[in-house]
Automatic annotation (TrEMBL):
Pathway assigned in UniProt: Amino-acid biosynthesis; L-leucine biosynthesis; L-leucine from 3-methyl-2-oxobutanoate: step 1/4
An annotated GO cellular component: cytoplasm
A biological process from GO: L-leucine biosynthetic process
Quaternary structure, from the entry: Homodimer.
GO molecular function: 2-isopropylmalate synthase activity; acetyl-CoA C-acetyltransferase activity; magnesium ion binding
Protein name according to UniProt: 2-isopropylmalate synthase
Region (Regulatory domain): 437-560
Keywords: Acyltransferase, Amino-acid biosynthesis, Branched-chain amino acid biosynthesis, Cytoplasm, Leucine biosynthesis, Magnesium, Metal-binding, Transferase
Gene name tied to this protein: leuA
Matching Gene3D superfamilies: 3.30.160.270, Aldolase class I
Top-level lineage group: Bacteria
Residues bound to Mg(2+): D40, H244, H246, N280
Originating organism: Azohydromonas caseinilytica
Length: 560
């Protein structure tokens, strides 16, 4: 890195637009979308797509709902030429979808482009030439006047060739390439030259497409440039004003959104931000940003995972796990406070109210994603997330103080193993913590229960104590008190809860007791799970007794 980058790099020049209107505007409807996945997205791949991959992605773009799709540069490659012909000859273009193809401002390329489109119902020819000072000087060696002559000549050439094919409805898209780096007056002059040479009218519209070919400024500067063009282009009512942002500074989405506020009608971009260098603007993000404002984007991302799969397969570029809306991890919370808030939010969310789940900007279900991965447990997780997983996967609702107790156990475990815990591992740890020392089936707890005349209970338990089976008996006003009496331990039951887990044939009774004993700080929870609620309660008391005993002397456990 240089000590003084100013010696090498120039700052961008802001636009003087004192009465700019865009900062107080909002976006209230979706723009016209153009997918350039098959052109800008394709020209930037290590290995450009073959016809088969192009067709697969084309069909997916149609399914998503794109009505304008730039399918390539037919004059540049035989694959693109053949692909264009295939779509037209085999009738693969739905009625409401229009193809766009690109060409440089060169006569031979324009002629070949028109030939590729012969017989199409409607077609957009995208003609471009660079206009910025560095390109004029370094690449083309042209003055501004010569650039205008180039535009006039080649638009006229296109007009002549397309007029000879009246069965197709022709639309010109003109892009002053490098628009964001060009003096506004020069861009305007180039666009007006194209507008005039094309003979724009009510029935002969034009798309003026303004790119940030290499993003070099903050998005507000692009918005000023767009608002300036929006005010000066004429006849504005016959012009579709389009933008084509790139992402070299990482702000393509912001550039596109501010451009829409500044007067743009249409956005060109790629799925998941694919495209040259740092990519084109990401249409998935733009569309879903609108959706979360309550505006339907007109694109269908209900099966976002399916869209990811097809895009990855066709481009061989993976979608980042943190990609907005589509990444594998974007609906996953590991951290405790987030998990707690999400769990409460999901419980409070009603189907007929506005979405208000903390930390989830969109309902994953609207993208065909499930809640399965929303909460995942590692050493950063808290009681809320752990409770959520046990509740969702096992139907076990833990009392609040038990959530605190068990999350301590989970934290120590996750810290020690330094990795994420799956739902299965969490359940295993729960069993290990609360069921340890107990037999697995109900038959293993040999206990007898008698109802006494005064309504109380008497129980007889056979337990394994210090390596020997002993039969203990006790009585009390219910099975819990009788079990405590039988154990002969100074246990005090602080709280008791019973719940059903599962439904129908799978239903089981879950009993949870919170107990204390002299000489042990705090309480311990015990859990019993059984087909029978009384059995579950007895288990729960034994579980708590074991855990209290283990806290005092680790080997003093009871087993049935
Ligand atoms: C910002 C963008 O993404 S623009 C889109 C860019 N996409 C692509 O270029 C992909 C497909 N292109 C290609 O395969 C090739 O460029 C082709 C086949 C179209 C043309 O190839 P070639 O004839 O070999 O020319 P090459 O690509 O090297 O272009 C350089 C020449 O074209 C001129 N040129 C470049 N862009 C344009 C333009 N838009 N209009 C007119 N001339 C242009 C250059 O000034 C240069 O001219 P020179 O040879 O007189 O110096
Ligand atoms: C030709 C234009 C639209 C382009 O792709 C760019 O400038 O990035």
């Amino acid at each position: 890195m240089l000590k003084n980058p100013a010696a090498k790099y120039r700052p961008f020049t802001p636009v003087s637009l004192p009465n700019r209107q865009w900062p107080s505007r909002t976006i209230s409807s979706a723009p016209v979308w153009l997918s350039t996945d098959l052109r800008d997205g394709n020209q930037s791949l290590f290995e450009p797509m073959n016809g088969e991959r192009k067709l697969k992605l084309f069909q997916e773009l149609v399914r998503i709902g794109f009505k304008e799709i730039e399918i390539g540069f037919p004059a540049a490659s035989q694959i693109d030429f053949d692909f264009t012909r295939k779509l037209i000859d085999e009738g693969l273009i739905p009625e409401d979808v229009t193809l766009m193809v690109m060409t440089q401002a060169r006569e031979d390329l324009i002629a070949r482009t028109v030939e590729a489109l012969r017989g199409a119902r409607r077609a957009i020819v995208h003609l471009y030439n660079a206009t910025a000072p560095a390109w004029r000087r370094i690449v083309f060696g042209m003055s501004v006047a010569e650039v205008m002559a180039l535009v006039r000549h080649h638009v006229a050439c296109l007009r002549r060739l397309t007029d000879a094919c009246p069965q197709t409805q022709w639309v010109l898209q003109y892009s002053p390439e490098t628009f964001n780096l060009t003096e506004l007056e020069v861009s305007l002059q180039a666009c007006q030259t194209a507008i005039e040479a094309w003979g724009v009218s009510e029935d002969r519209k034009i798309i003026i497409n303004l790119p940030t070919t290499v993003e070099n400024a903050t998005p507000n500067v692009f918005a000023d440039q767009i608002e300036w063009m929006h005010r000066h282009l004429a006849p504005r009512e016959h012009i579709v004003l389009s933008v084509h942002p790139h992402n070299d500074r990482g702000s393509a989405v912001a550039s596109a959104e501010l451009a829409l506020m500044a007067g743009a009608d249409r956005v060109e971009g790629c799925l998941f931000g694919n495209g040259e260098r740092c990519g084109n603007v990401d249409i998935v993000t733009l569309a879903l940003n609108l959706y979360t404002q309550g505006i339907h984007p007109g694109l269908d991302f209900l099966d976002i995972n399916g869209v990811v799969r097809i895009a990855e397969e066709c481009t061989a570029i993976p979608v980042h796990p943190r990609h907005p809306y589509a990444g594998d991890l974007v609906f996953t919370a590991f951290s405790g406070s987030h998990q707690d808030a999400i769990r409460k939010g999901l419980a409070a969310q009603r189907p007929d109210t506005h979405w208000e789940v903390p930390y989830l900007p969109i309902d994953p279900a609207d993208l065909g994603r499930t809640y399965d991965g929303v909460i995942r447990v590692n050493s950063q997780s808290g009681k809320g997330g752990i409770a959520f997983l046990l509740e969702r996967e096992r139907g076990i609702v833990l009392p609040r103080r038990m959530q605190v107790e068990f999350s301590g156990v989970v934290q120590r475990h996750a810290d020690a193993c330094e990795k994420e815990m799956s739902g299965g591992e969490l359940w295993a740890l729960f069993q290990h913590t609360y069921f340890q020392g107990l037999g697995r089936g109900d038959e293993a707890i040999r206990y007898l229960e008698h109802r006494l005349e005064d309504g109380g209970r008497r129980v007889e338990l056979t337990v394994l104590m210090d390596g020997e089976h002993r039969t203990l008996s006790g009585q009390g006003n219910g099975p819990i008190a009788a079990t405590v009496d039988a154990l002969g331990l100074p246990l005090r039951i602080e709280a008791y809860e019973e719940r059903a887990t599962g439904t129908g044939a799978d239903a089981q009774a879950l009993a949870i007791v919170e107990a204390s004993a002299p000489g042990t700080a705090g309480t311990r929870f015990g859990v019993g799970l059984s087909d029978n609620i009384v059995t579950a309660s007895v288990w729960a008391v034994i579980s708590a007794a074991n855990r209290l005993a283990a806290a005092m002397a680790p080997q003093a456990t009871l087993a049935a």
